[in-house]
Amino acid sequence: MVYKRLFTPIKSNLTFGLLILNLIVFLSVLVHAGQNNIPKGVAKSDAHLYEKKGSTWKCLDGSATIEYEAINDDYCDCADGSDEPGTSACPNGRFFCTNSGHISSYISSSRVNDGVCEPECCDGSDEYDGKIECPNDCEKVGAEYRRHAEQLAKMRAKGAQIKSEYIEYGKKSKQQLESELNRLKTLLEATKIRVAEREVALKKVQEKEKAESKTKDHIRIQKYQVKIRTLREREERLREQIDTLLNILKDMKKDHNQNYHDMAVKAAIKGYDEFVEEYEREMEENMEFDQEDEIDEEEVKGEESQAPEIETSLPSLSERISGALLDVYNDILETFGLSEYVIRKPEQQYSRPSDGGKSKEVIAAYDAYDEAEEEKRKVENDITEVNKKLEKDYGTQLEFAKLDGECFSHDAKDYTYTICMFDKATQKSNKDHVSTHLGYFEKWIGAESKEDDKYYTAQLYTRGTRCWNGPERSVKLYLECGIENKIFSVAEPEKCEYIMKMTTPAVCPSIEKLNHEEL
Ligand code: MAN
């Protein structure tokens, strides 16, 4: 813990080489400080603030002007304690541990000469009033520090190496995506042309079929006209036959011997009377009906082009006429037992017109067009997908591309947390294995601006499953340099707001930066 406090400020910035450099500089500072009479407890970097320019000196916060000699007089004059850098007179003041040139660090002035050896001051310089004696641990601390610094440097170097591979991967996959995009764009143009061609072909066969269907309608109408003419002739013949039959019966009625009281003749005459009455009425009605439905052949010819599909489920006019007359004719034959005297023609079969579906040619043209359209849609979707990938923010050197879609898990006793980079985060109960969605990747949040180095050190995942009576779950993922991609801690400081910490080579310094630091 102490050790950590001691090294934390420099841990992340210094390499071992730099440390050595610092030590040399520091030692020379001590010599120089002695020469220039820098007040006790003032670091070389702050020496200019304590430079003697006259008999007085102004507190660093400007709160007072004191005699230069009053610096370190064990009396606190300045509000910020800056006049007592080497004593404990000011509670807020800072004391600079000399640390025999090992590790430079400040402690609060209040901890100077307080009877406790401060671990930050490994040389015991904080207890200089002689009341207690603090051991000089600087050799040990320095060795420990160097060991740690070496480990850190090795890890950063290895991390930098892996990062360079990530960068290489990022560049390559971007190039691949770009060439894939170009290929798809060219393909899209070709599919567009194919769609247009097939559309033209489809229109052509559609028009051809339309023209053919017009011709077919024309032929059909002509056939119906012939049929109607035939039926009319037939109707005429039937009328003549009915008239003949009626005349026979009429003569029988007129000429029969009334005294003979033949019951069959009487029944026939009664039947004849009833039939004539009904027949005349029906003929009258049929006349009206025929007039209503009369088709002007010229008119039909003119309308041919707009001829609608002929309804096949209803009986046609010719069928209706023929049907009605046949019924009457058959009635007479039946009523008067004349059936055997009439030679029946075979019953007319009225074939159903075709179902009128599309032709095979049109269906094939439709299929070809649909196929081209489908292909075009697919290419467009692929382009959208590739563009989405290209638009993803994989860092200044594309170092995060390698991690896209990679999932990392961490067992935190009650739950196992998983983060799939640039995708989503989940929390799975270790008891019942129920999985809870913690959010989708939204953005980088390491800093406000992309220009800031820290920008690419934290990600935000939002829109997770809503917390009962609370917000939607979300995750902040903090990244630190490490040679492994590994979540090392998960916390839920606020209900349903999770903090994950993970090491990854992607945030290690680049090789160039390391080389630059070592110089
Ligand atoms: C579940 C988990 C917890 C969360 C509670 C909120 O138990 O997702 O992390 O705090 O729900 O009700």
Account of the 3D structure:
The chain is of the alpha+beta class. It folds into three domains: 37-136, no CATH class; 184-341; 401-518, Distorted Sandwich (Cation-dependent Mannose-6-phosphate Receptor, Chain A), CATH 2.70.130.10. It is 47% helix and 14% strand. The chain contains eight helices and twelve strands. The protein has helices at residues 2-11, 16-36, 138-255, 263-293, 297-303, 317-335, 360-391, 511-518; strands spanning 56-58, 65-67, 94-97, 105-108, 407-412, 415-420, 424-429, 435-444, 458-463, 474-481, 486-494, 497-504. An eight-stranded mixed β-sheet has the order 5-6-7-8-9-10-12-11. Strands 1-2 form a two-stranded antiparallel sheet. A two-stranded antiparallel ribbon has the order 3-4. A hairpin with a 3-residue loop joins strand 6 and strand 7. The radius of gyration is 54 Å and the shape is rod-shaped. The two termini are 31 Å apart. The model is unreliable at 1-35, 304-321 and 345-355 (pLDDT under 50). It binds alpha-D-mannopyranose. Residues 427, 436, 467-468, 492, 495-496 line the site of alpha-D-mannopyranose. This is Glucosidase 2 subunit beta. It comes from Rhizophagus irregularis (strain DAOM 181602 / DAOM 197198 / MUCL 43194) (Arbuscular mycorrhizal fungus). Keywords: Coiled coil, Disulfide bond, Endoplasmic reticulum, Signal. Residues 288-312 are annotated as: Disordered. Pfam families: PRKCSH-like, PRKCSH_1.
